[in-house]
Design goal:
TIM Barrel, 8-stranded parallel barrel, 14 strands, alpha/beta
Length: 480
């Protein structure tokens, strides 16, 4: 494309999550989170999905890379300076709930935690970087998961409301862009991360998952309500995982299966949070999974309607293919999205199918459905990076991945989509959410740590660092 591809003020930047890079898991009054109980290694999801997993921390059996992370807690100034050198216009990060309320049930917040995040905000602002905050990103207090069964308990609405009110009151005059929950719809397939529910506490029961969704929706609307009182200029968004999905063929059974997957995974949570009401297909979903309804109280639906979110933040890594007619079809690997293999696509080292055109489709589908601003807050390529003797990584494969996706973003903007920003995932190497590994790297900045968090921890610029610096400097005009 020629001409002005991206609007003035486009929020180029990068994204991280507290539990994956901060470390210092027991420092300055921080309590234990569900992330602190997630073991490292490729068996992480299997452990969390086992029937006997009870959120215990067993260091004789597992490693816990999140406990140390990349020590961003002590090195945030160094990291943000590197982000500023790249030219970031925005930086998406999250607040560790347990730094503010260690158990989640306290009346008084932990001042050390609030001071830490205010320092991060101030550091960003000193470089002209717009902070973009996720209130809760896969790190609810472990106490709330163990004692209350996570978000299936309505009392968590009140605990989250206090948490949101506390951080909004502290930071709401300085930070415009917020999101309530990270990838809230991921719980449809794996509720351990965002809902704190494992099989032992109902994680295989769809009625419990949808009840938990309802409580999260209420909490999200309360956060919007609080934000508007604190500062009317605040923009509160939701955040979903989005995977463009294709039917395998023109067989009506596969078309219907694809429709249902899109409704359940891609649209349900956004329908409620953006439109402020449950969609017409809700009852069909309930019936499909063998229950009639969930519990609601008077005033719940009115709250959802009055305080919807104002924009959609979403992650996009891969697309999927639905084949309901051939149970023997070759499966594709994935994180929380999989499906069958698409013969037209290549895949990453972790089997994720790389589909830049699917991002343009996703943007058009979301904007056509909701007509609210969109913000791509995660996108990137997890890969094994090889360093030379100077710790330099020639990651042309990452540059190619990002370039192709940015091209499709420009096409979507030309289609008429209102896209406000792009923060690729893991702008600095950090612990993977899906595998608990450092070796699955996404960043523009290499961190000298292995899967056991051993190494110097020093930061080194990859080839993609200079490339992304140029992309931002030219507002997406120069992608060479």
């Amino acid at each position: 494309m020629n001409g002005n591809k991206f609007p003035d003020g486009f929020l180029w930047g990068g994204a991280t999550a507290a539990n994956q890079l901060e470390g210092a898991f027991d420092v300055d009054g921080k309590g234990l989170s569900v992330a602190d109980a997630m073991p490292g290694g490729k068996g992480r999801f299997a452990a969390l999905g086992s029937a006997d997993f009870d959120w215990s921390i067993d260091e004789s059996k597992y490693t816990y890379p999140n406990h140390k992370g990349i020590d961003h807690y002590h090195r945030y100034k160094e990291d943000i300076a590197l982000f500023a050198e790249m030219g970031f216009k925005s930086y998406r990060f999250s607040i560790a709930w347990t730094r503010i309320f260690p158990l989640g049930t306290e009346d008084t917040p932990n001042e050390a935690g609030l001071a830490f995040y205010e320092a991060i905000v101030d550091e960003c602002l000193s470089y002209g970087i717009e902070p973009v905050i996720t209130i809760s990103h896969y790190e609810m207090p472990l106490h709330l998961a163990k004692e209350f069964g996570g978000w299936q308990d309505r009392r968590l609405v009140g605990f989250y409301e206090k948490f949101a009110e506390t951080v909004l009151n502290r930071l709401g005059q300085k930070v415009t862009y917020w999101m309530t929950f990270n990838e809230i719809n991921s719980a449809f397939h794996f509720p351990a991360l965002s809902q704190g529910i494992v099989p032992a506490t109902g994680g295989n029961n769809k009625q419990i998952i949808f009840q938990a969704f309802h409580h999260q929706f209420l909490a999200s609307s309360l956060a919007v309500k609080i934000a508007k009182k604190v500062n009317p200029q605040i923009k509160m968004g939701c955040m979903i995982i989005y995977g463009t999905s294709y039917a395998w063929d023109t067989n009506p059974k596969n078309q219907q299966a694809n429709l249902e997957l899109n409704q359940e995974m891609n649209f349900f949570c956004a329908d409620v949070q953006v439109r402020g009401e449950y969609p017409a297909y809700t009852q069909r979903i309930y019936n499909k999974y063998g229950f009639d309804s969930i519990e609601m109280e008077a005033g719940d639906l009115a709250l959802l309607k009055e305080f919807p979110v104002e924009y959609i933040g979403f992650s996009y890594y891969m697309s999927s293919v639905v084949n309901a007619t051939d149970p023997e079809a070759a499966k594709a690997m994935g994180n929380l999205l999989s499906g069958v293999k698409n013969p037209f696509l290549e895949a990453s080292e972790w089997g994720w199918q790389i589909d830049p055109a699917g991002l343009r489709i996703a943007l058009n589908e979301l904007y056509g459905r909701y007509e609210v601003p969109l913000f791509i807050v995660e996108n990137g390529l997890g890969a094994i990076d090889e360093v030379d003797e100077d710790f330099y990584v020639a990651d042309d494969y990452r540059i190619d991945y990002l370039r192709s996706h940015i091209d499709e973003m420009a096409n979507a903007i030309a289609d008429g989509v209102d896209l406000i920003g792009y923060t690729p995932w893991g702008c600095i190497d950090l612990v993977s959410a899906s595998t608990g590994e450092m070796s699955k790297r996404y960043g523009f900045i290499y961190v000298d740590l292995d899967d056991n968090i051993e190494g110097t921890g020093n930061r080194y610029k990859k080839k993609s660092f200079d490339w992304y610096q140029k992309v931002i400097a030219t507002n997406g005009e120069d992608l060479a």
